[in-house]
Amino acid sequence: MNEILLYKALSLLFAVGFGFVLFLLILRVVSGKRRPDSVNRQWEAELNVAQEPEPIDSEVGEGEEVYVCSVCDWVYDENKGDPDGGIKPGTRFEEIPETWVCPICGVGKEQFQKVIRKLEAGLSYLAHLERPSDELEKDMRVIYEKAVTGNSPISAMRTAKQANLLDNIQILPAQLAQKPYDKSEVEVDFQTTIGKTANKPLTINLPFYVSSMSFGSLSKEAKTALAMGAAEVKTLNCSGEGGMLPEERAAAYKYIFQYSTGRFGATAEVMAQADAIEIKIGQAAKAGLGGHLLADKVTEEIAKVRGVTPHQTIISPANHQDIKSLSDWQKRVAELREQTDGAPIGLKIAAAHLEDDLKVALLIKPDFITLDNRGGATGAAPTHIKDHVCIPAPYSIYRARQFLRENGGEDISLLVTGGFRSSADIVKALALGADAIGLSTVPMIGIGCQQYRVCHKGTCPIGIATQDEKLRAVFDIDKSAAMLANLFKVYREEIADFVRICGKKSVSELEISDLVTTDINISQHTDIQHA
Fold it and tell me: Is residue 46 part of a domain?
């Protein structure tokens, strides 16, 4: 009897289990027949084509237009409306109230652009067959977009292909052979001097600073907040190649003016206000390309700061076209020293032909060298360039410091920029031989950047990388400056922890023996021992 009951119970259990599995399989098949609507809309927004095949040169009918947010790429389809935002299906875009905002990023109607849905001859005739990506051919989409548009993509921030090699390096804490210090025993010395042998060395209270970001790429409010936040912890700001913004200089504790190929704002009066001059030769994200600022971004105020004509496109040449020889370089550095009454003069180069470039740099006799590494970010750069150029840290820092040490350049301060994010990154760079680390993305996030990556479009909804007055009104200078000061204070304390656990008392005491790596390549090409 018991055996019969057990058999019936097991049969019932098997039937229920089989039915449940069958139900899940059917559900999966049914749900797999359609892609998520958000993915479909993303395809449509990216290539400016309809999802369904349309005859060549045909127009979409009235009431069927779509508009894409220039900030977050969310698509408003007139057929669907925005029910959650109170906009009924079928509502034409021009009929939407002016108070309506993008449901994703919160920008207003004025930041939406109409998607041209008329298919031109030869342009994406495969519309309904297109795929957003391929697991094996990772570059399929990028290649296809170039074929469709005939253009190289421009993007903001760092390269997506960069791995932070510093993550493969660990810091070695002291134990018995050298004891770690307690917080009560040692107050870590952070004092950092740039241009030790200059008539007027530049001294700051932290081994990191706000690196070059220009007025024009960033708003006046953002530049001012960066200066205020950095001044709170007594570190420096750099002008970037867009000239000296008076409000920024007034708020800054110490200030490096960038002498660029375009010579923007590089007057004797302006440079006399700087604590140091950095001659920009290149940057990693767009090394050797120069740059340009489109006419619609050259406002009256930007033009005044840069010393150019407003509302006209301005060009930064790829090189210093009035400097033809080593002798010219030596004369120019001497002139800048005289104009600044002995302030440190530096050269900023991308990490490329390091030993060759540093050999020439030593003949020019700068007080400091800024080395921009692979992974450096920028407001706008061709993706095909920033994805495939320059040497990453730690190799570049190690090689640069070794060359300077072996060739009489030990007194030249080595500043490094490009790809540094955490306090641990800063400590590792210092141990490798850097004197100071320039940060750009970190302080931008510190004042509120949410990485919308629309810097190149000028539509930053935070008000940081834009000149749009409505968007800039969102940004609170005082609150953002306080946030940056908080961030830098946290980094200072975290760096102090690392210094003390290494058994050191000053950031200047950190050395390569404080590091170990799990990467055989790093170990073989630097003096960092393998774990």
Answer: no
For 384, the token pair is 């095909």
Residue 2, domain member (yes or no): no
pLDDT by residue, tens only, the chain of 531 residues: 555 555 555 565 555 555 654 555 544 444 443 333 333 333 333 333 333 333 333 334 444 678 888 777 788 888 888 888 888 888 988 899 988 988 888 888 888 887 754 333 334 544 554 556 656 656 556 665 655 566 655 554 455 555 678 989 999 999 999 999 999 999 999 999 999 999 999 999 999 999 999 998 899 999 999 999 999 999 999 999 999 999 999 999 999 999 999 999 999 999 999 999 999 998 766 676 777 777 877 899 999 999 999 999 888 888 898 999 999 999 999 999 999 999 999 999 999 999 999 999 999 999 999 999 876 556 555 666 667 677 888 999 999 999 999 999 999 999 999 889 889 999 999 999 999 999 998 888 898 888 787 887 888 888 999 988 999 999 999 999 999 999 999 999 999 999 999 999 999 999 999 999 999 999 999 999 999
Total tally of structural domains belonging to the chain:
1
The residues, ordered by sequence, that sit 6+ positions from 60 with a Cβ below 8 Å of its Cβ are 50, 54, 117, 118
For 127, the 3-state DSSP assignment is helix
Domain containing residue 332: CATH number: 3.20.20.70
Has residue 3 been placed in a domain? no
Beta strand 515-517 pairing with 529-530 = parallel
Q: For the chain, count helices (H), then strands (E).
A: 16, 20
Question: Are the C-beta atoms of 266 and 345 separated by less than 8 Å?
Answer: no
Q: Are 518 and 166 in contact (CB under 8 A)?
A: no
Placement of tokens 């005044």 in the chain:
304
Nearest to 240 by CA among 259, 221, 219: 259
- One-letter amino acid of 81: G
**Separation of alpha carbons 121 and 277, rounded Å:** 53
Strands (E), 47-191: 66-69, 75-77, 112-114, 154-155, 169-171
Q: Report the C-alpha gap between 62 and 57 in whole angstroms.
A: 16
Query: Residue with structure tokens 């660990």?
Result: 170
**Cα–Cα distances in angstroms (integers) from residue 310 to residues 300, 313, 317, in the given order:** 5, 8, 19
Decide: helix, strand or coil at residue 478: helix
Tell me whether residue 53 is in a domain.
no
**What is the span of the domain harbouring residue 480?**
165-530
d(CA 477, CA 432): 36
Dist CA 86 CA 101 (whole Å): 11
| Contact between 416 and 373 (Cβ < 8 Å) | yes
Take residue 416 and report the two structure tokens written for it.
């490094």
Residue located via tokens 């004891």:
179
